[in-house]
Give the backbone structure.
Amino acid sequence: MATDYDAPRKTDDESQEDSIEELKNRRNDAKSGDVDQDEVEAAESFELPGADLSHEELTVRVLPRQADEFTCASCFLVKHKSQIAEVKGDKIYCVDCY
């Protein structure tokens, strides 16, 4: 069966335009504010099992850039010299950004 995608999709019930007053009343409904909840509030209400890491401390040893590494001028990641794609003046770009 062929589908006519150019045919109007509204039914007779939907074709009647809502008045401005009806739209204003819908906007002021009590339920309409539920959609506008703050995402942070919603996220704080969820608790994942074993996810309390407040007592943990991260210890990461940061090494300076090595002689065989460079910093990409586009993504600012430190990469090995084998990842050099292009050198434009004093700017070096990696193969991922080129």
